[in-house]
Amino acid sequence: MRAFLKHERKELERFRLLPYTYKKVGLVIGGLSLLTLIGVWATNQTVSPLIKNLLKDILLFAMLLVSVTREKQENAAIRQARWKSYTFAFVAGVGYAIVQPYINYGVAYLVKPEKAVFSEMSLFVVLWFMLVVQLATYYVFKRTQQSDLAKAC
Fold it and tell me: Which residues does residue 69 pair with via DSSP β-bridges, in sequence order?
């Protein structure tokens, strides 16, 4: 059992963040995908569900790419901010996935009780929420830690 745990720990430690240039690639790909989705929505164009889902998946991939790239200057405080944001995003995402369908049903029941239907959250919505929360909290934690360091100096 110890050998297994040691091997697993070694494998986890091998996980490396992507170089900083991938962040720019992720931002460009995500921006183009988001603009395309907004353009389709704003112009009321009919697009096949395959294309729409592909654009959503590309957006999620781009957000993940931004999430797993290291900073230009990586240090312990930035790594701590990143892992805190992953933890917070995971907990918030699970809570959101559990609670939000009931909130949606409750609001629908109050507005039109005869048309209220309980439905689960889509995978895209949950993953998008988790990635947005992770990226937002990461930058807040990072900025907070940097301002705390500047005050200390």
Answer: 18
| pLDDT score at 71 | 92
Amino acid letter at 29? I
SS3 122: coil
**Confidence band for 95, pLDDT divided at 50, 70 and 90:** very high
> In this predicted structure, what is the pLDDT of residue 36?
94
Best CA proximity match to 58, nearest among 27, 89, 82: 27
Residue ranges per domain, the chain? 1-70, 73-153
Tokens coding 64: 């993940």
Instruction: Provide mean pLDDT across the span 107-133.
Output: 92
Residue 47 CB partners (closer than 8 Å, separation 6+): 40
**30: burial class by Cβ within 10 Å (0-12, 13-18, 19+)?**
buried
Q: Which two tokens stand for residue 8?
A: 């697993």
Q: How far is CA 74 from the centre of its chain?
A: 20
| DSSP at 69 | B
Distance, first Cα to last Cα, the chain: 47
